[in-house]
Every structure is written in structure tokens, then in C-alpha cells.
């Protein structure tokens, strides 16, 4: 296996963070990287996790904007509602009425909300020293990195555990129905958040509220670990 | 920014003890909640472990155990656990294990303590458990307890007007007119009569009551008979009248009038009459009294007239259910009304057919005999005839009589008994000696068919005619059944045939019979098996009581069952009956035909919990019965 491939499989986040802490210019970013990443062999049960969900006006980080962010710090044992946070963001791009209905956020709520540039500091502080948990990392990591590039003009990198990817390991690749089965109408198992939760007996939550979705993601990871992994599993086996 | 997770708050708001808490309190609880996921088979609480959180089951299923490992309760969505530990030294009392993948919400004990302090309903709920929670539910739903609690002596406004037995009818009439009363108590003593003919009621030397006369007696027994004005009142009085004790409740008094169709009732304290209660006193107290209905029954001159009262019966039932009367009150009142119909029909039959050729007793069986009748009921009745009965000579008369009553009852909404347990069936229209043989045989050689008869015929009560005939059978039954262990064992086995709908896994096992899908048969799987098992215990202790609550009272005087078990049964029966009654009342109000089937989803969450608990009480009581009569195995061959 090439060095690049090994890195892609399990990046060495501790050294990546060390390097970035030295090269970053913005103070907020420097502090974020200086908080460091946990060692790759840390047992999951010892890791401070934070579930994050970002609701956006669309799917493309280049063209769409963040409207709300939900954060739920947790551990394998407990999700503490008292520590959760929820931010409505004034987007740069115009809010379409479609996304308004989707996220149940009104225009007046948005107009009073801070811009993302004002929130970035708080946000990075919340994430510092923790491992971020998301469902479908391309959205959260993509939008957040794009926002940092836009407002600060620098790169944002951080490790995430993607609960969707954990589901994909079970139900995609070798485990998904082959072309022949699909031809006969056998659908691949859905790995969307709500459908995945259902498989673990987790209750149905109203989707598309950033905080509820963050909570839903945290619960899903607890369920996945309880079902498929040992709590002492090394973080390197789960993160990206 | 003030965050609150609506998903959590809304869920809490649907389940007790959070249900009914103010919005801001719920939001505060939701904000402080912690969450954890437990895989099926994982221990959540271990015995004696420290506990700092109230546990709330958001989804999944959890078993709670006693210390000895016995299953204590099976919890589902919206149930709480761990509160015992929080209330007692913060040590786990009842260990808990997830039996399905479960999501548990944790509420910090500081918040739990505050909720207990500031919200009475919350404290009541978490502090009560088992019978007492059911008790809370039962107690809070019967506001009409007033009628049960208030002593009849409170309704007495004046001492009864009394005259000695030798007083002439003319004098007696003058006293009644002077005192403006419609009834008069007759006493045997002459000593203390003062100038006006009245007696100091309870004082020394006051007379012992020997009879009563009413306005009506002057019409029917004096004037219509053409008696001389100097006839002693003792000749026209009703001797040894039915009385109530001063300490009896207003409701008991009402029932007594209802059962006996009398409108004047002397109230007795320490053997002396202290007042006279009449129908209007009660109606004044309880303005919509069902006694109105009963007195109406006796004014009707034919079956069509009786039939016209059918809507009134249902209205009475609905009103009592809405007034939150107890199941006992409603059951007795409906049975009293049913008796009224039977009695009036028998009077009408005798008027048409002439007087009976031999004495007889018309029996009520089943729910009417137990005073546990509701609106959905069929008729179960029988005739005990005097032993001088000669079928050749007399049976034609009694067949006509039975048919007249049975058809009349059917016309009034008491449908024919599908099993043919009616006096129209020659088998159930027999002289006392044959009945004695029946009962003896059923007890000595029980078989599946006669056991079925036992559970119907062993709830019996006289409705009309010679009550002594019925009493003889009750005596025979009480003395014989209690000493026949094999019979009791067989009857016990029979009482275990119908189990409560508590599935082994998770939640209710629903009925699957045709049109009633996903529903619970409250009678067949609830009140009926409860009555069955109470009957076994009651017969075992030789009681002659018919009503299930009174049977439990009788069992309580023995050592047959622990007192807590009896209390629990009482609450379970009351609760199941009330759910059934309210369900039927709702059906009637909505213009539907009332039945015994409920869909658990349609009842409020708090009731659902209590319902499950009541079924659990029944289930435990059945276990106890199985344990009490272990010879069941050997009875298989019966």
C-alpha cells in the first residue's frame, strides 16, 4: 500500500494538526489546531465527541450557504442536552422559500441572526479538542471548510466520524445487492439518517432541524457502537 | 440562545408524570435531559448501585426486577424507572435491563426532587406504585364518593312521628295530618307516649319499632277494606319494616329503596328509630336519582310502557358514568333497575295469569345477582318452585309466567341468554329439591359443563317471590363448596381459562377475532376472569356474598389471601370496570351500540399504564390461584 493510500485510510491527525498549528495565520484557527487531535489509538470510550449538523440552502458548498448549525457534545455514555447548542446563521446567499419550509426557519429569524463570520470563533472553540461526528461528512466538512476559506482565506481540516459511512461499511460494497439483484428490483438498503436510526430501534425524529439532527446523529453513533463495535475500539478505525 | 429540543419536550408531555406539567417546566426538564442507548440484553441499573437520575424510556422495552430476580414490571415507551432508588437513599432498589434496543432519557435527581416538591401530581405518581398508583387513579376518578361517604343520618331533619301499636287508625290519621307527614312509625311501648302521641325518640323508655304505615296504607288497607275508625293501627301497619342503620351511606339507603321498591325507610340507631327517610329526601340530595326511573318502572301498565323506558336506562347509565360514580354504585344501580323490570313484569304476569298455584322464587343469576350489571347484558334467570310443585298440574302456569317475563325483558333490551339459562327452559324451572340435587351434583362431581353452570348459577339472588327458597340454595352452596377441595380446585382451573391480555413480550396481546382486531376485550380478558377468581376464594371461605367487592370483604376476614393482595384486586376490579363503563357510556353518547372492546391507542396514556397494571394484578392473582390449588394437574382428567 502506498503512503498516500495509507493516509487516506487513516490520516495521522495528530501530526496534521501540529503542522497546521504552525502554518495557520488566523488566531481562531491557530487556537483550534493547538488544541490538538486525539492520538489515533485512543479508545473511542475515552474520546470527547461532538455531533454536528449543518442545514444549508442547497447541497453545493460553492453556491449555497449555511442557515443553521446544531452541536451536541457527547460521549459513548451520555448525550447531555444541557451542553447542546444551536445557531441560526444569516446566509450570504438569498434564502429560497423552499429551504425556508424545509428548515422551518423564518426570514425574520434569519435577518436578526449573526453572519457566519461572527460565529466562526465560537464554532471552532466548540469543536476544539473533540472528534466531530456527522451523518454524511461531505456536507458538514465541505460547507465549514468553504466558509473558512471564504471568510478567513485559509484551509480548515479536522477529523470526522461519519455515521453514514459506518452504515455504508455494512450495507454497501460487497454487502449491497449486485447488479443482478438490483435488476430484479431489490433495492440497496437505505443509509439515510432516519432509515439508519430505524434499524437500531431509535425513535423517529422530525428531520431537518440542525439540533435535532445533531442529536439524532449522536444517538445513532451510540447505537452503532453498541451493536457492531467494542467501546474500546481505536478511534483510527472509525474516523476519516 | 435559548435552546430546547422540541422532540424531547413533546414526548415527555404525552406521558405521566410529565403530562400536565406547565410548558416552561417541561422545557426545563427537556433542557437538562441526558441520553443513552442500550442494546437489548444490557443491564441499565444494578441492585444497590448509586443512582442519580430518574430514567425515562424513550423507546424500546425494559424489564424491572425485584431483588430476588423475579420480574416486577415490563416497561415500554414513556414509562419511568429508578424513582424508587431516588426516593430512598439513592440506591437502586429494582434492577433494570433492556430487553429491546432502548433509548433512555436521564433526568438529574436535583431536578427530580424539585419536580416532586413543586408538583403534587408528579409526586403522587412517582411515590405511588403498584396498588397505590391504581388506588390514586381509582380514588381520583370517583368524585361521587360523596354519596358513598355521607351517612344517611345527615339527611334526617326530624325525629320520626311515632304512635303506639294500640292507637286507632283514626287517631293515627289525625297525628299524621297534624304533623304533616306521609308515614308513621308504630312502636310497641306505651310508657313514654306524651299527649301529642309522639315519643322521645332515642331516650330511655322509647319504644321498639314494630311497624310502619304510610298514606297509601290508609287508602288500600283501611278505606278500601272498609275498616272501622277504631281498628288498632297494628292491624294495618306493615310489620317488621326494612330499615337502614344511621351509619349506612346515603348510597346504601338509595340501593335499599331500589332493591325493595320502597319509598319510606326508617333509620335505626341502637335499635331505636331516629328518623324516617323517604324517596324525596334522597332525590333532594341527589337530584337526578335513578330512583325516579325505578319508581317509573312500577307505574308502567304493560310491556310497551316498560319498553319506553329503555332510553332512560341508558341515560341513567351515562349520567352516572359522567358523574364519576364508582363501578360498585353503577353496577348496583343497573342491577337494581334490571330487578325493577323483572319485578314489574312478574307483577304484570301474575295479574294476567292469576295467582301462582304454588309458591315460587324468581332468581337472578350472574351479573344481576352480583349487583354488577352494565348496559350490555343478557338475561340469566331461573325459577325455584315450592316442593309441592306438580309438573302435570302447575308447569303450564310457570312456563307462561317465565315466557311472559323473558319476552318482556328481551323487549326492554335484556337479550335472551344464548346458553338458554332462562326460566323458560324446563331444566331451570324446577322445585327446590331438584335444585338441591343440581347443586350437590355440580359440587360433588364437577365436569367441564357443570363447572360452567357453577360459575353462572353460583351467583344467584332472589328477585321476586319466596326469597327463602333462594336462601336455602345459598346456604347449601356456602356450606358444601367450602369443604369440597376437589370442586374448588376444578373451579379454580376454570377461572384460569381466560388470561389478561399481557403478552410475554412488550405490550398488550390484542384480540384477533374477526371484526375486533387490535383491541382488548375488557370483559372477557379483564372483569370476567377477575370475578371468576374472586368467586373461587369467596366460596372457599364459605361466604354467601354475591357482589365481588363484598366477596373480597368476606375473603379479607379469613387468612386465605394477604390483605395487600385483596386491596390490589379491589382496585384492579374497580379500575377495569370503570374503563369498561366509561367506554360504554361514550359509545352510547356517540349513538353507537355499546360493547366491551377497547382500542388501547384511544385511551389516555395514564389510563393505559393503569390498565396494564390492573391486568398485571389479575395475572398475579391467577398465579396465586394456581399455587393455592396445586392439585390442578390431577384434575386434567375431569
From TrEMBL, chain A:
GO biological process: DNA metabolic process
Annotated GO CC locations: cytosol
GO MF annotations, alphabetized: 3'-5' exonuclease activity; nucleic acid binding
Top-level lineage group: Bacteria
InterPro entries: Ribonucl_H, RNaseH-like_sf, RNaseH_sf
Organism of derivation: Halopseudomonas pelagia
Residue stretches in coiled coil: none
Exonuclease domain: residues covered: 48-230
Identification of the protein by name: 3'-5' exonuclease
Keyword set, alphabetical order: Exonuclease, Hydrolase, Nuclease
TrEMBL record, chain B:
InterPro entries: CBS_dom, CBS_dom_sf, cNMP-bd_dom, cNMP-bd_dom_sf, Diverse_CBS-Domain, DUF294_put_nucleoTrafse_sb-bd, GlnD_Uridyltrans_N, RmlC-like_jellyroll
Stretches assigned to the Cyclic nucleotide-binding domain: 17-115
GO terms assigned for molecular function: [protein-PII] uridylyltransferase activity
Annotated keywords: CBS domain
SUPFAM superfamilies (alphabetical): cAMP-binding domain-like (SSF51206), CBS-domain pair (SSF54631)
CBS domain boundaries: 156-231, 237-293
Protein's name in the database: Cyclic nucleotide-binding protein
Organism encoding this protein: Halopseudomonas pelagia
Amino acid at each position: 500500500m502506498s503512503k498516500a493510500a495509507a493516509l487516506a485510510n487513516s490520516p495521522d491527525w495528530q501530526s496534521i494538526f501540529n503542522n497546521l498549528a504552525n502554518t495557520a495565520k488566523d488566531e481562531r484557527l491557530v487556537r483550534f489546531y493547538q488544541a490538538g487531535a486525539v492520538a489515533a489509538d485512543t479508545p473511542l470510550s475515552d474520546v470527547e465527541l461532538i455531533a454536528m449538523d449543518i442545514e444549508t440552502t442547497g447541497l453545493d458548498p460553492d453556491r449555497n450557504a449555511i442557515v443553521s448549525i446544531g452541536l451536541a457534545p457527547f460521549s459513548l455514555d451520555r448525550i447531555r442536552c444541557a451542553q447542546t447548542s444551536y445557531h441560526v446563521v444569516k446566509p450570504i446567499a438569498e434564502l429560497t422559500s423552499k429551504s425556508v419550509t424545509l428548515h422551518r426557519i423564518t426570514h425574520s429569524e434569519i435577518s436578526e441572526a449573526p453572519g457566519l463570520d461572527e460565529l466562526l470563533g465560537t464554532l471552532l472553540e466548540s469543536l476544539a479538542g473533540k472528534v466531530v461526528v456527522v451523518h454524511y461528512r461531505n456536507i458538514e466538512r465541505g460547507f465549514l471548510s468553504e466558509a473558512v476559506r471564504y471568510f478567513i482565506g485559509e484551509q480548515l481540516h479536522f477529523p470526522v466520524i461519519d455515521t453514514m459511512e459506518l452504515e455504508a461499511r455494512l450495507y454497501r460494497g460487497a454487502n449491497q445487492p449486485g447488479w443482478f439483484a438490483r435488476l430484479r428490483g431489490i433495492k440497496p438498503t437505505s443509509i439515510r439518517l432516519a432509515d439508519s436510526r430505524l434499524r437500531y430501534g431509535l425513535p423517529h425524529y422530525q428531520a431537518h432541524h440542525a439540533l435535532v439532527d445533531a442529536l439524532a446523529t449522536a444517538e445513532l453513533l451510540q447505537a452503532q457502537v453498541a451493536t457492531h463495535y467494542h467501546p474500546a475500539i481505536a478511534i483510527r478505525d472509525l474516523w476519516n | 440562545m435559548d435552546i430546547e429540543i422540541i422532540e424531547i419536550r413533546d414526548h415527555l408531555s404525552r406521558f405521566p408524570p410529565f403530562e400536565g406539567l406547565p410548558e416552561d417546566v417541561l422545557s426545563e426538564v427537556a433542557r437538562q435531559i441526558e441520553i443513552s442507548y442500550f442494546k437489548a440484553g444490557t443491564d441499565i441499573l444494578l441492585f444497590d448501585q448509586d443512582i442519580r437520575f430518574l430514567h425515562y424510556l424513550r423507546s424500546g422495552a425494559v424489564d424491572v426486577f425485584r431483588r430476588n430476580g423475579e420480574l416486577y414490571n415490563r416497561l415500554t415507551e414513556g414509562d419511568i424507572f429508578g424513582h424508587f432508588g431516588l426516593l430512598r437513599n439513592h440506591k437502586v432498589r429494582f434492577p433494570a435491563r433492556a430487553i429491546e434496543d432502548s433509548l433512555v432519557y436521564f433526568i438529574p435527581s436535583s431536578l427530580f426532587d424539585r419536580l416532586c416538591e413543586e408538583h403534587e401530581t408528579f409526586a403522587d405518581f412517582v411515590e405511588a406504585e403498584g396498588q397505590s398508583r391504581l388506588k390514586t387513579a381509582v380514588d381520583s376518578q370517583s368524585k361521587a364518593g360523596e354519596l358513598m361517604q355521607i351517612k344517611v343520618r345527615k339527611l334526617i331533619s326530624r325525629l320520626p312521628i311515632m304512635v303506639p301499636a294500640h292507637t286507632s287508625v283514626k287517631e293515627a290519621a289525625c297525628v299524621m295530618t297534624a304533623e304533616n307527614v306521609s308515614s308513621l312509625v308504630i312502636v310497641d311501648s306505651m310508657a313514654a307516649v306524651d299527649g301529642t302521641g309522639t315519643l322521645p325518640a332515642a331516650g330511655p323508655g322509647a319504644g321498639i319499632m314494630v311497624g310502619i304505615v304510610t298514606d297509601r296504607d290508609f287508602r288500600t288497607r283501611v278505606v278500601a277494606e272498609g275498616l272501622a275508625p277504631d281498628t288498632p293501627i297494628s292491624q294495618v301497619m306493615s310489620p317488621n319494616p326494612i330499615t337502614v342503620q344511621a351509619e349506612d351511606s346515603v348510597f346504601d339507603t338509595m340501593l335499599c329503596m331500589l332493591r325493595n321498591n320502597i319509598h319510606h325507610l326508617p333509620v335505626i340507631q341502637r335499635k331505636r328509630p331516629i328518623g324516617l327517610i323517604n324517596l324525596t329526601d334522597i332525590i333532594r340530595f341527589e337530584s337526578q336519582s335513578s330512583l325516579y326511573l325505578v319508581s317509573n318502572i312500577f307505574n308502567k301498565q304493560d310491556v310497551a310502557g316498560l319498553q319506553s323506558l329503555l332510553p332512560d336506562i341508558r341515560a341513567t347509565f351515562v349520567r352516572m358514568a359522567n358523574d364519576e360514580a364508582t363501578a360498585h354504585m353503577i353496577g348496583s344501580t343497573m342491577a337494581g333497575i334490571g330487578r325493577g323490570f323483572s319485578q314489574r313484569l312478574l307483577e304484570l304476569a301474575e295479574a294476567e295469569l292469576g295467582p301462582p298455584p304454588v309458591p315460587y322464587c324468581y332468581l337472578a343469576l350472574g351479573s344481576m345477582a352480583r349487583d354488577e350489571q352494565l348496559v350490555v347484558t343478557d338475561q340469566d334467570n331461573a325459577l325455584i318452585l315450592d316442593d309441592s310443585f306438580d309438573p302435570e298440574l302447575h308447569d303450564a302456569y310457570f312456563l307462561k309466567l317465565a315466557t311472559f317475563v323473558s319476552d318482556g325483558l328481551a323487549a326492554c333490551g335484556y337479550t335472551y341468554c344464548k346458553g338458554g339459562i332462562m326460566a323458560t327452559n324446563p331444566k331451570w324451572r324446577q322445585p327446590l329439591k331438584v335444585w338441591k340435587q343440581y347443586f350437590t351434583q355440580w359440587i360433588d362431581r364437577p365436569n367441564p359443563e357443570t363447572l360452567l353452570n357453577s360459575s353462572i348459577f353460583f351467583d344467584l339472588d332472589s328477585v321476586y317471590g319466596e326469597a327463602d327458597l333462594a336462601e336455602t340454595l345459598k346456604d347449601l352452596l356456602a356450606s358444601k363448596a367450602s369443604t369440597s377441595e376437589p370442586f374448588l380446585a376444578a373451579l379454580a382451573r376454570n377461572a384460569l381459562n381466560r388470561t389478561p391480555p399481557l403478552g410475554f413480550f412488550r405490550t398488550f396481546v390484542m384480540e384477533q377475532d374477526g371484526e375486533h382486531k387490535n383491541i382488548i376485550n375488557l370483559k372477557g380478558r379483564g372483569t370476567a376472569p377477575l370475578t371468576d377468581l374472586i368467586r373461587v376464594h369467596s366460596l372457599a371461605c364459605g361466604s354467601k356474598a354475591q357482589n365481588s367487592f363484598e366477596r373480597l370483604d368476606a375473603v379479607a376476614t379469613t387468612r386465605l389471601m394477604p390483605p395487600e393482595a385483596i386491596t390490589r384486586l379491589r382496585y384492579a376490579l374497580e379500575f377495569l370496570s370503570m374503563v369498561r363503563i366509561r367506554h360504554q357510556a361514550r359509545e352510547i353518547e356517540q349513538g353507537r351500540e355499546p360493547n366491551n372492546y377497547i382500542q388501547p391507542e384511544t385511551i389516555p396514556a395514564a389510563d393505559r399504564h393503569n390498565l396494564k397494571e390492573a391486568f398485571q394484578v389479575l395475572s398475579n392473582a391467577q398465579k396465586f390461584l394456581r399455587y393455592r390449588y396445586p392439585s390442578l394437574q390431577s384434575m386434567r382428567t375431569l
